[in-house]
Amino acid sequence: MIYVKSINKKNLTDSKDFAKLNTEMNTEMKKANFSLSDLISHKEAANILKVSRQTIHAMVKRGDLHPILVSDRRYLTRYEVEKLASERDKKK
Fold it and tell me: pLDDT tens for residues 52-70?
């Protein structure tokens, strides 16, 4: 799992704080070579793969998918999910 940035919501008191945090997160994500638009929720992944969210969680647990932790939320990369969907479709 890739850990991007821990966010303390109590520190986000105004728009300047949010802008600073957004800049820091974008910098960290560039180091990891992806952007926020590359990340999808477990629900979106379930829709792409046409499975339940419970199946997505099981796939993460098995190591088939690799979550990225941003603050206290876990995301998946769109590329990894779409690649898995493509591989699965080829097997059919």
Answer: 999 999 999 998 998 888 7
* pTM over 0.85, yes/no: no
Q: What is the DSSP letter of 14?
A: S
Topology of domain 13-91, CATH: Multidrug-efflux Transporter Regulator; Chain: A; Domain 2 (1.10.1660)
